[in-house]
From TrEMBL, chains A, B:
GO terms for molecular function: acyltransferase activity. It comes from Clostridium thermobutyricum. This is Stage V sporulation protein AD. The lineage of its organism: Bacteria, Bacillati, Bacillota, Clostridia, Eubacteriales. Coiled coil: none annotated. InterPro entries: SpoVAD, SpoVAD_sf, Thiolase-like. Signal peptide: none annotated. Pfam families: SpoVAD.
């Protein structure tokens, strides 16, 4: 009777559409390989505010607002805003919601937030709970560094396995009908923790969760990796990406031919000094809303499986000796 | 075509049922007026762990596990766990999810989390996205004090408008059919911020959000306050409660005859020294899963409107001079 297929996947029979998307990135991201795909590139990390946290909230607010405008809608047309971010108590999202006056459901999935919001958002549209839902998230290099590691002013040395939190955001408006990319399946993640405790090696901590969600997606849907033009994880970076394709091969799925990672795509690590690549909620959000949305709309790609990946620790849990739980949610988006 | 009525409310035509509930509270809550209704009362705040944060995660894990057992289900029967908490990066929920191996969607709604999770959970069941969903949250006095105010060891003096974060939790298993309380309507909140900056007066900061959600619920459903046996807010405490009923009267709705507040109910403030009353995600969660669920099952009450209320600031936003945004989500639960 229910719409689940297999253990973890929901088939969206009405195929909710992504009717618009918008992305903003910081200056460094705007110098990377995907620069031509982002909708707005900031001149500086403060974005005319007084703090990095206020800048992050402004980035998110403007991204959502522009995505709504692009869909030719007003804020009052939107039934739900599903958003979250990395900051303590998701203040970027709450302060964005304060300005937008849209019914707000706050999420926390760390860097998996983009697909968490797309999962719930597409289910809401598919089930006829309202007409339009906005799914969004953002992150900011400077606010994340000082919250999770050290204030930038310390000039701490970074480990080579470190990832670079993306200053960026992505918002998508979901609706019904029209010639837009459709969300066809949603596979929800289970928390996986293989005991990694190094907060400077998040790719390794999140890879098992990505593998588990990918494995279950293929099993539940009966699809093979080659069904998709691109399988793209959120922010595993160069190290986590390698682990993921190796582990999946052990489960019998070879994704090496069509596998990408947003964290691996957004920077030119060697030239830009971004260590193991991009991370943060804004990484998969900006790459999905910027690069992949345009590729799908232009029909240069016809299907992607997007798996945003999150590391669910806090500084407190790490200081108390806990390892890093990972999670990953997948959505298939098809033109 | 969609299931929304009015601006903010969803009518759940299949009326998902709360098929089981479980609550755990700390020692102080276990000495309060509702002590006979809680399912487990802790002997001490550490719950045989090494830190208050680990205790909070253990409380939440055990509450969810016991709620699932009471429903005669196994973890593998549960389609989704929707949970969140007050700690940075919702570590209590993520670490609970790590142990339970249930597909996990993390939420952040501060103290509004219980009705946020019930809103999304009941929509998932109503829309046939799976058979069983667990909605849960927890808070802990000691972990919240040290995160949001001061470590207890400082012995800081408390303001009289301060509320006392409840050490406690509540979990509800939602399913279909059976002689259980039904969730009939869900009204989602918009962020409201009237400029209150005093983190020691959260009741006043959250009251406008509660009023807004209540007003929209009555308007959307056409119901009058007297329809419900009890209208109960989450954790406005004695001060926020008074503001709420006064403000609503100005909007033409008199809730004075059947209005309660979980924060006002859980302690005997005068005798227990709990200032303006209880607060925290665990406040409305434990009172709803403990007291009200039993009252409904025993048919001593036939309908409640539960409105958990959240204050969406962080210590960083407060230090940066931001006021406190509030939110409130309402669910009607009827026998």
């Amino acid at each position: 009777m229910n719409k689940k297929i297999g253990n973890r996947t929901v088939q969206l029979k009405n195929e909710p559409r992504i009717i618009s998307a918008f992305s903003i990135v910081g200056p460094r991201e705007g110098e990377g390989p995907l620069k031509q795909y982002f909708d707005e590139i900031l001149k500086d990390e403060l974005y005319e505010t007084e703090s990095y946290e206020k800048a992050e909230a402004k980035i998110l607010t403007n991204t959502i607002q522009e995505a709504i405008k692009r869909a030719n809608l007003k804020n009052k047309d939107i039934d739900y805003l599903l958003a979250g971010d990395l900051l303590n108590q998701i203040i970027s999202s709450s302060f964005a919601a304060r300005q937008l006056e849209i019914p707000f459901l706050g999420l926390y999935g760390a860097c998996s937030t983009m697909t968490e919001s797309l999962s719930l958002g597409s289910i809401l549209i598919d089930s006829d709970i309202g007409e339009y839902v906005v799914c969004a998230t953002a992150s900011h290099f400077c606010s994340a560094e000082r919250q999770f590691r050290f204030p930038l002013e310390y000039g701490s040395q970074r480990s080579q396995t470190c990832q670079w939190t993306v200053t960026g955001s992505g918002a998508m408006v979901l609706g019904k009908g029209g010639n837009f990319p459709k969300i066809t399946y949603v596979t929800t993640g289970v928390v996986k923790d293989y005991g990694i405790k190094d907060a400077n090696n998040m790719g390794a901590a999140m890879a098992p969760a990505a593998v588990d969600t990918l494995y279950n997606h293929f099993k539940d849907t009966g699809r093979k990796p080659e069904y998709y033009d691109v399988i793209v994880t959120g922010d595993l970076g160069s190290i986590g990406k390698e682990i993921t394709q190796k582990l999946l091969l052990e489960y019998g799925y070879d994704i090496r031919n069509n596998y990408m990672d947003c964290g691996d795509m957004i920077f030119n690590n060697q030239a830009q000094g971004t260590d193991a690549g991009g991370s943060g909620c804004g990484c998969s959000a900006s790459v999905a809303a910027g690069y992949f949305y345009k590729k799908l709309m232009r029909k240069e790609i016809k299907s992607i499986l997007l798996i945003s990946t999150g590391a669910l620790m806090s500084t407190t849990s790490s200081l108390q000796g806990e390892s890093i739980p990972g999670i990953a949610h997948a959505v298939s988006i098809e033109m």
